[in-house]
Amino acid sequence: MNKRVLLIEDDLEMQKLISDYLQGFGFEVSTFSCPKEALLELERKDFDIIILDLMLPNMDGFDVCKEIKTKKEIPIIISSARGDIGNKIMGYELGADDYLAKPYEPRELVLRINAILKRLHSATHMKVGDFFINEANRNLQIDGYDIELTKLEFEIFLYLIKHKGSIVSREQLINATSLSQHTKNRTIDMHISNIRHKIGDDPKNPKYIKSIWGIGYKFL
């Protein structure tokens, strides 16, 4: 499957140049000049990497970077004419994975993208039992079939699978995920029920997730 790139760049000539070049290397590119529209698209679709300009209309690129990092764990390459060391430091402090100062050769961008994705691939892919997990993209598969989990369901499932064989309390799941600290135990139970349904697990005769009465759950 082609890697999906979200390109946020308001210079339409530069946007087309980068988009055409990346597509020539097999990337699927979605382009936006308006950062707010790009953020909405990010909520609707999953992307493998973001190329982000800093000088954008209505919203500074650093604020866009900050907002992205609160929504998803996704690599960001800043592509900007603001190439001084102060801006670079700010970009890295906000969570950018790389910083390319314009002008640059598009081939260098391809190399940087591939290096980041390769590093993430090796760090975030794992095979556990019947499951193949891509932590970076929140992708879960069983026997090659995609299982669509929500962000919270994936966080819960990932925590359980990383603690395979151990009893995990509902409180641990609340603390380890983006659930509110005021979340009630029955909310966790509802998410577990949804996960079981999606992975085809029978709670009465569990193959994967066993309920531990009065405590929580265990991934078998």
In terms of per-residue confidence, which ranges show pLDDT below 50 for 5 or more consecutive residues? none
Q: CATH homologous superfamily of the largest domain, by name?
A: Response regulator
Structural class: alpha/beta
* Beta-strand residue fraction: 15-25%
Q: Which features would summarize this protein structure in a list?
A:
5-stranded parallel beta sheet, elongated, alpha/beta, Arc Repressor Mutant, subunit A, 2 domains, Rossmann fold, 4-stranded antiparallel beta sheet, 220 residues
Summarize this entry quickly:
The protein has 220 residues and is of the alpha/beta class. The protein has helices spanning 12-24, 35-44, 61-71, 85-93, 106-124, 151-162, 170-176, 185-199; strands spanning 4-8, 28-32, 49-52, 76-80, 98-101, 125-128, 131-134, 139-142, 145-147, 167-169, 209-212, 216-219.
